[in-house]
Amino acid sequence: MSIAGLLPQLEVVRKDFPILERTLAGGMPLVYLDSANTSQKPQCVIDTMVDHLERHNANVARAMHQLGAESSEAFEAARDKVASFIGAPSRDEVIFTKNASEALNLVANTLAWARGDLALGEGDVVVTTEMEHHSNIVPWQLLTQRTGATLRWFGLTEDGHLDLSDIDELITERTKLVTLTWVSNMLGTINPVAAITRRAHEVGALVVVDASQAAPQLPIDLAAMPVEERPDLLAFTGHKVVGPTGIGVLWGSRAVLDELPPFLGGGEMIATVAMERSTYAGIPHKFEAGTPPIVEAVGLGAAVDYLSDLGMQHVHAHEQAITAYALEGLATVPGLTVLGPLDAAQRGGAISFEIEGVHPHDVAQVLDSRGVAVRAGHHCAKPAHARFGVQSSTRMSSYLYTTPGEIDALVEALEYTRSYFRLGDS
Amino acid sequence: MSIAGLLPQLEVVRKDFPILERTLAGGMPLVYLDSANTSQKPQCVIDTMVDHLERHNANVARAMHQLGAESSEAFEAARDKVASFIGAPSRDEVIFTKNASEALNLVANTLAWARGDLALGEGDVVVTTEMEHHSNIVPWQLLTQRTGATLRWFGLTEDGHLDLSDIDELITERTKLVTLTWVSNMLGTINPVAAITRRAHEVGALVVVDASQAAPQLPIDLAAMPVEERPDLLAFTGHKVVGPTGIGVLWGSRAVLDELPPFLGGGEMIATVAMERSTYAGIPHKFEAGTPPIVEAVGLGAAVDYLSDLGMQHVHAHEQAITAYALEGLATVPGLTVLGPLDAAQRGGAISFEIEGVHPHDVAQVLDSRGVAVRAGHHCAKPAHARFGVQSSTRMSSYLYTTPGEIDALVEALEYTRSYFRLGDS
Amino acid sequence: MTAQDLDALYQEIILDHYKNPHHKGLREPHEAEVHHVNPTCGDEITLRVHLTGEPGAETVADVSYDSLGCSISQASASVMTDLVIGRPVAEALEVHETFLTLMQGKGQVEPDEDVLEDGIAFAGVAKFPARVKCALLSWMAWKDATARVMEENSK
Amino acid sequence: MTAQDLDALYQEIILDHYKNPHHKGLREPHEAEVHHVNPTCGDEITLRVHLTGEPGAETVADVSYDSLGCSISQASASVMTDLVIGRPVAEALEVHETFLTLMQGKGQVEPDEDVLEDGIAFAGVAKFPARVKCALLSWMAWKDATARVMEENSK
Ligand SMILES: Cc1ncc(COP(=O)(O)O)c(C=O)c1O
Ligand SMILES: Cc1ncc(COP(=O)(O)O)c(C=O)c1O
Question: Where along the sequence do coiled-coil regions lie (chains A, B) (predicted)?
């Protein structure tokens, strides 16, 4: 099973992930193909968290004792690591949130209270796309409902790309903000972020990119992007980049972050508090009220180090090789239709599909009985499902630890599903 | 060193906390007296998190495979544990947030968008107190600034209690919300939550209690409180109850939570999402957008189990015994003044003090050189410091693992500090 | 889950109801129509009830529905209509309670065939927390719609 | 931190400046006044500068201040005024740079007594990240106030 592009020493890499050795009911080995939902964690991330909890635990910023200094140093070092992982122009532009959803809501929520340049009102337009995750839809619905602005949508082409044919009607002088996902969690599509950003910047609109599926798979270097093509804000989530839950990242350009009003109020985000009024700290602390997710940030730091050590270009190549192999395999299953681009080079590693005559729930259930873990449902992308006239789908999603053998196991299990539901003769 | 009220087998309990065996620079053993800032974690909490990450990691709610079922079950079991820890009338009233600050902001932030009964406007009054943590001040400043309502304050008496003499002017028909801390993180004061809640409910005001310092120390049984005296909402934070960072709790009565508009929008908090509009899930999910802090909730579940196994009444008795012993010890240090009540029975385990002639930073630094970890600064309670005419203070805070010997070490180190700064002859 | 569990979940009866659902399609007359979704997976059902008889002593004259969903949710709707149509509401609600107890029993409750008829086939579902919601979707919709009519009737 | 580290932090010179701060108290004339706080601990300083001379070639004629804070922040303000008062602004800014390099050197930078005079006593502070901010508070305030006057002058 030698396919070009796979991570060298894949079996050794797999040993880093303790959960991959688990067996499930009936002694089935785990075939984990739900990484777009959440990724598994390498031992080094777990060990780093344990070491922090067992030896260095203390609150940050506020504590002047040795444990406090150690904890603060580990926490701020994690910020440096994340900044370098995405090539952030400045490490102070990296804000820790609890997940990608909070990062996106932070932007939408503070914009609702923004005054001046950034303020939104009647007649202003916010543009999103039909392939967004609910976490990049609902915040903008709430924002536009609350400010009287209008929410507009990029549609999708039949083969799962953004339909850019009406870009000139969508991105106009009235457009204050354009938001889009870099990589779709349902269709797998990789979107032309640079081109759309350039276009949005021409009309002075802010660009918010949901990088929740991109950060795990694509090398990102913000500083290297021409400033016209660089998004103003970018969000991703720790648990999809082999880090823990409870931590997400919002990167934003200093200029925009400085202009936004505060989000949550409380400890750490203030300069002074008086009964009459309070003043706020500079970034990043202005947006980090209360005790931050300390051990989670430390774990995320270890996670992005792990990815960087593997090399994001190699992770990406691996993902593409596995995706291509999976697309080939899925094509052999009768009655199976893939939603989204069929060319691995144009997509990320999440592949959603339908099988005629079996509901995705039932597919997932039968797969699970063979140890194959996939996701069934709308994958928090109802509008995209509606666009393709389906109510739900089955999704397999690979990651750096996925082997061609696991794809074979999936394909076999799909065949078995068809026979289980007596579709063999169709 | 046998003092009535200490936890039985304190030395055995201490063995549960790996960090307590650490030595610091110069071979000094750690004397951790900064637990009001963050508590240390017992091995069982760390092990539970590791087991989850190594064997059961998957996203919750969305995943139908075996790992997903295990992870969801562990996550929802944690909600049950937390509900029983505070005696919540219903487990669905327990909402996981990232910390206490987010929980308090959730309430303030959604109230800003509430319509109908809960809506705030000009002429309406929100009442807080001068002893609050910044995390229970700034959200209400933002809310009142944004809605045009007025923020008013309970003052403090000279001995660190709430000054209730003007309660009739503060709690009136115009009062829509009263918020207060159950136990002060600076003065240690335990506030009469039941009496104030009863009074606020008489005028139809909501009551929000910050239980960040109460939950670690006092047995809480919401269901057992007469409904007139039961707060409507209550917040606390995981990392102060021997749980991890990255997780907090908002409890709220179903009636109020149902009426509040959504907070953050995204995955998990929806019923359906369509381009035209979305509808929202019921509680608790309505307020839990995105992937929740899963392993953190699981860790918090193990933490509250640990506390319940010890028995919160015993933890409380231990805290009171140590606090009484500490107050005695501190009274022997010349030039030392304690801020807040001097009777251990009326207070929690945080004791802030001043030493004439030495700045708190310098006190903390000298203490640290002896391995004694305390906090110096304003402890996120600037208005309370301003009330007592001090800019900052030194705070020692004990917890269930604190020994009388550690208090002795503190007192000795304070004597040493005085001599170091040549105050011996004063 | 093992192959045996799988077979326990997908009983012949369930697959039969799935392939040939009873009482499917929306019909007149009806006094209430509701739309329920399972937020996790998106399964949905539109369901109508038609009750006859005196307020307080109604009978389930008809239940009709249109639904999208997995085999479990589809079969469950079919079995549900078999069980409630023609029954006094009070009795149908008792059957609902019995079914609910079975579903929430984590596989520990012995199903009573006299009460649940084909519904006993769902005993295997109770072991799969993620699927319990599928089996209950149509029942919840039916209960909701029925409650609405009864409330209206009692005014 | 050990007892030796403690002594390295609290040099005799620092404790002397702390007990007897130089140039303390707010004075006239001044062209700018600023107020800086350390958000973590609450230490604060109100600081005034008085510059004389041609725009672009000003001299620090006076720096006066009122402050609340720990020994390190108080002593640092006192030493800072000694170092900058009477110096051309450009030269004073260079001293500031040298001090900053020392503070950010994590204890690895050898202090230059010719430039920093009593300021070399702060070498021990550089090992304590939490205290570096204390030592820099007054310098930041001075730099800020000076920049304001210069900007005003250059208009
Ligand atoms: C009384 C009180 N309220 C609120 C908080 C905020 O908790 P967190 O920082 O975990 O949000 C704290 C702790 O810092 C506290 O002591
Ligand atoms: C494209 C996309 N955006 C946003 C999210 C939300 O991430 P989280 O649930 O961690 O907030 C996800 C993952 O669920 C996603 O795939």
Answer: none
Question: End of a domain among A250, A283, A309?
Answer: A309
Six-digit token string for C25: 């399609």
CATH of the domain at B17: 3.90.1150.10
Q: What is the ipTM of this complex?
A: 0.94
Q: How far does CA C155 lie from the centroid of its chain?
A: 27
Question: A319 falls in which pLDDT band (50, 70, 90)?
Answer: very high
| Chain B residue nearest residue A276, CA to CA | B141
| Contact criterion met (CB below 8 Å) for A126 and A182 | no
Indicate whether B275 belongs to any domain. Answer: yes
Q: How far apart are the first and last CA of chain C?
A: 50
Q: Which of B46, B69, B114, B380 is catalytic?
A: B380
**Which pLDDT score, from 0 to 100, does residue D107 have?**
85
How far B49 CA sits from the closest chain C CA (Å)? 23
Question: Which of B278, B309, B340 marks a domain boundary?
Answer: B309
D40 touches chain A (CB under 8 A): yes
DSSP state at residue A251:
E
Q: Report yes or no on B174 lying in a domain.
A: yes
Strands in A40-98 per DSSP E: 94-97
CA distances from A51 to A69, A171, A310, B99, C51 (A): 15, 49, 23, 22, 65
Is residue A347 assigned to a domain? yes
Nearest to B272 among C37, C129, C130 (CB): C37
**CATH number reported for the structural domain that contains residue C34 in this entry:** 3.90.1010.10
- pLDDT tier at A426, thresholds 50, 70, 90: very low
For A226, the domain range is 47-309
Q: Are residues A290 and A243 in the same domain?
A: yes
Q: Which of A198-207, A292-301, B416-425, D87-96 has the lowest mean pLDDT?
A: B416-425
Over residues A175-214, the pLDDT tens digits come to 999 999 999 999 999 999 999 999 999 999 999 999 999 9
**Of the ligands numbered here, which is closest to the C-alpha atom of A397?**
2
Residues of A annotated as catalytic (active site), given as ranges: 380
pTM recorded for the entire structure: 0.95
Q: What is the CATH number of the domain that holds A179?
A: 3.40.640.10
Q: How far is B99 from chain C (nearest CA, A)?
A: 26
- Asked if the Cβ–Cβ distance from A271 to D1 is below 8 Å, we say no
Distance from CA of D144 to the nearest CA of B (A): 23
* 3-state secondary structure at position A117: helix
Q: What confidence tier does B423 reach under pLDDT thresholds 50, 70, 90? A: confident
Considering Cα of B189, then B194, then B197, then B203, what sign does the dihedral take? negative
Write phi, then psi, for D148 (nearest 5 degrees): -65, -45
Q: C64: closest CA among C99, C104, C22, C98?
A: C22
Contact A148, A141 (CB under 8 A): no
Touching chains, D (3+ CB pairs < 8 A): A, B
Please give the Cα distance from B117 to B358 (Å, whole number). 52
On average, the pLDDT of chain B sits at 96
Q: How far apart are CA A247 and CA B56, in angstroms?
A: 19
- Which residue of chain B is at minimal alpha-carbon distance from C127? B69
* Strand (E) or helix (H) holding D37: strand D32-37
pLDDT per residue as tens, chain D (155 positions):
678 888 989 999 999 999 999 999 999 999 999 999 988 777 899 999 999 999 989 999 999 999 999 999 999 999 999 999 999 999 999 999 999 999 999 889 999 999 999 999 999 999 888 889 999 999 999 999 999 999 999 88
Indicate left, alpha or beta for B182 from its phi (over 0: left) and psi (-120 to 50: alpha): alpha
Domain range enclosing D70? 3-153
Picking from B24, B376, B421, the nearest residue to D41 by CB comes out as: B376
Report the domain count for chain B. Answer: 2
Q: How many domains does chain D have?
A: 1
